[in-house]
Amino acid sequence: MGTASSLVSPVGTVGEVIEDTYEGVGGEACEIPVEVKPKARLLRSSFRRVGTSRPGGLIGASFKSTASVQELECMAEYERLKKEYEIFRISKNNELASMMKKEAKLDKENKRLRAELQALQKTYQKILREKESALEAKYQAMERAATFEHDRDKVKRQFKIFRETKENEIQDLLRAKRELEAKLQRLQAQGIHIFDPEETDSDDSCSEVAATGAQSEYWSGGALGSEPSMGSMMQLQQSFRGPEFAQSSIDVEGPFANINRDDWDAAVASLLQVTPLFSHSLWSNTVRVYLINTEETKSEVDIFIQKYSPKLQKYCETMEYFFQAVHFRVETESPIQSVRKWEIEKSSLTILFLHLTLPSCLLEECEEVFLKNPEGKPHLLYYRLEEGQNSSDSVQQLVEQVRYMNKAKIISHVGGVEEGAHAVYSYVEKTIKKDILGCEMAELEKKDAADNSDSSVPEEEIFGDVLWDAHDEQEQMEAFQQASNSTCELGFEKYYERLNDLVAAPAPIPPLLVSGGPGSGKSLLLSKWIQLQQKHSSNTLILYHFVGKPTSSSAEPALILKRLTLKLMQHSWSVSPLTVDPAKLLEEFPRWLEKLSAHHQGSIIIIIDSVDRIQQAEKHMKWLIDPLPVNVRVVVSVNVETCPQAWRLWPTLHLDPLSIKDVNSLINKECSSASLKLTKEQEKKLEKHCHSSTTCNALYVTLLSRMVAGAGSAENIDLILQKCLLCQDTVSLYKLVLKSIHESLKSEKDQGLLKEILCLISISHNGVSESELIELCPELSWAVLASVVHSLYKMCFLTYGCGLLKFRHLQAWETVKLEFMEEDHNAFDACRKKLIDYFTKQLSQERVTWRSADELPWLFQQQGDKQKLQKCLLNLFVSQNLYKRGHFAELLSYWQLLGKDKNSMAAEYFSSLKLYEKSCEREENMISLADLYETLGRFLKDLGLLSQAIAPLQRSLEIRETALDPDHPRVAQSLHQLAGVYVQWKKFGNAEQLYKQALEISENAYGTEHLRVARELDALATLYQKQNKYEQAEHLRKKSFKIQQKAVRRKGSLKVIMVGRRL
What we know:
Blueprint: E1 48-49, E2 58-59, H1 63-189, H2 203-214, H3 230-241, H4 261-271, E3 286-293, H5 298-318, E4 322-327, H6 337-346, E5 349-354, H7 360-372, E6 379-385, H8 393-405, E7 409-414, H9 417-436, H10 440-449, H11 459-463, H12 470-484, H13 493-504, E8 512-516, H14 522-536, E9 541-546, H15 557-571, H16 582-599, E10 604-609, H17 617-620, E11 632-639, E12 652-654, H18 660-673, H19 680-689, H20 698-709, H21 714-724, H22 730-744, H23 748-763, H24 770-776, H25 782-794, E13 798-801, E14 804-807, H26 810-821, H27 825-844, H28 850-863, H29 866-873, H30 876-884, H31 888-897, H32 902-918, H33 923-942, H34 946-963, H35 969-984, H36 988-1006, H37 1011-1026, H38 1030-1050, H39 1054-1059
Parallel strand pairs: 3-4, 3-5, 5-6, 6-7, 8-11, 8-12, 9-10, 10-11
Antiparallel strand pairs: 1-2, 13-14
Helix pairs in contact: 1-3, 3-16, 4-38, 5-9, 7-8, 12-14, 15-16, 18-20, 20-21, 20-22, 22-26, 23-26, 23-27, 27-28, 28-29, 28-30, 29-31, 30-33, 32-33, 33-34, 33-35, 34-35, 35-36, 36-37, 37-38
Pfam families: NPHP3, NPHP3_hel, NPHP3_N, TPR_NPHP3
InterPro entries: NACHT-WD_repeat, NPHP3-like_N, NPHP3_ab_dom, NPHP3_hel, P-loop_NTPase, TPR-like_helical_dom_sf, TPR_NPHP3, TPR_rpt
Main location: other
């Protein structure tokens, strides 16, 4: 049978079933465990392999021994694994312990770092608080420093005034001493015994000196300490060096030689005429041509109005004047005689169109105009002749009388009406240019330039770098003349003495406050006193400003200070660049005032009427509270109800209500001028009524007297008085005036036109002209407009200001708002829209005038439409017009309203200029583009943006050199402006080269004796002076002064005087 091992297949696997080779006869199949070969290495040597006879068999081992070997192997493997595990466990435990130690160490480090972080955060917060405290302390220190500097400057001025006062007193004492010594010598020479001066009692004289010095104690505060003042140094040097030192100009820098006395006297004689000269033929900036015609000459008049009047209007607009052809059609309109006479008085030129007959209704009017003509205005008589027809005796007689008296030009025309109208137009155009507007000087300059293309040289080129607006000056002149118009003195003589005492009082003294209620006569008092001062004190320089409506340009503080500063510069013979920054302008005005006061030999009086109407008066007029130079006096008038609290401490001159005597005098004079006389009973009624402050002020009594004088007959006086005595204040009386004028109009259409006229004037910025009213109201005829304006003017409701109709008093403006605007807001909005549409249409037609530049941005500002305001400002010609007329503060305020700073504003203008340049093709457009670039460059230079100002000025120079000629005078203008930027930028080498080029071009174009040459010489002298090259500067100054002196003697106009010199 064999052993059990023989049944095992040597190659079998565990659990393998052995097949039955006996086909199921030998027995059952079963599973037999298979021996597994041990893997342990240590047992391999105890086993032997059998030979090939029994493959797969084992030698020398039983079944039992095989199992034990397997256990041993397993045990050995177990031990090994156990040892390895123990080693692994120990290593991991060690690693874990190490990691726990590291974790504990990291936790400790983390806690330490957290503590440090908290400490650092606390330190940071502490440092941050210290920084904030330091910044706050810094700002406080800066504020204290600014306050200290202001106080220091104030103390300097105080001490300066104190010292100058004492110097004057010392000079007076020395003069008195010399006089006493001379008197003593004369007495001794006569043998008269003289007491010893040491024995005399000098207490009285000492007390007088102390009393005089006590006047200086008005200004308080601060320790004394100052640099020598210009005024004291000038006075001391004049005392020791003689009167010739007074010939030097204000800015004494460097060793300049003095101008001789004859030259200075000639200059001063012309300098007295520093106010712009306006033609006597102009009525308030308007060229008015009054046309008189008969039925036979109606065709010529129609052709002249329709064809030639627009041409004359366009020319006058370019010269910044209004033009109006006044014509009353005989067949449809017959205004009252007083209205026609008033229109003739206002006219600049009267034209009479005659043919064969002259109606008797026109004969008296023609004789008044052409035969009397007391003012010597230019007049024209157009006389159309026809062959075979004889004129009437009245026509022939009038023509012969006019020809004999030689007071008018006569055009005798034979031919058609078209040719006749053209002949009239040619004469009128020539008369306007030569006699009325005085443009003959410009024509002479064209000939001197030898270049007719230079006909539009900018006016500021003659004026230097100072931007002057003649409209502002003319408006002030007219305001002064209107304020001084009065039927009688109204008992103001007692106030004149108080004002005279102000001028004679020793310095320093604060401004004098003239206060009173509305309409109390403050403007009348100041204007009358100004006339007295100009008449009796020739050495006194008076600067005045009358403030109008609070929303008008006359109430803008920057324009007021600019105007007054320019007046000081004119009298100083200096045309230094004037800042456009309102804050800096507020600082420069006192400096110029101090400079001129040191140079001026007489007193300087500054008068500002209605100063409380100025926008933010306390902020912009703060120079009033600072000490003034010794010879400067300031008088301001305010409404007693609106006077700022800080000003109430000043010396005050309060105007009392008019006395009954003055009331009766005023009313009787008005009535006598109308050939009326009041009864005793009527006078008693007036005396009884005029007892309160509101019914005894000058304006109320004036209105009342005008109403009574306008009654027309003695029978109507009682009715007028009955209505007037119901009015207890000026506004209610103005309402009665408005009602009476309203009822005097014939139709409802005319009454509606009256309302529209007053609303348009009320809404406007500075007023509306008559020609603008005709265009704004197509249904308005000249007859209705003339009658309405005449009535309102006569009743002190409206007045003229630089050609514009405006309200004469604030009470009239308030009356219009109460009567027409508070009840009907739609009328207010409709009138504003009409004005906006009118001036917008002008811009769309490229008709940018000073009126559209003044009104349209302001109307958009009042409307609150910022988008349209920005679009209007980006019309380059609008901004150019505002800047060139000196309204830069107004222009800046518009941009500030839009939220734009200087840089963003410059970027907006650059973008607009680039767009405009793309559309410029013709030569005249390129010249206009060059002007715009130059204006932008000057504007940016004045704003202090020097780096940005170079590019537009350089571009302007390039365009002019290309479009005109490299030697053209406008190229010299560009060079001059570009050099000015380099001077301000301290690049003197570049500036000198440009100034020399400009000088060479100007000499070649105008000759060596022209004012533009003098300006370039002045600019070079100033440049050399800044480089301490005093000898070269002095030589150029003398050369420039000689040119100016010759021009003054030759022309004597403001344009010559404004060139000036700067030492």
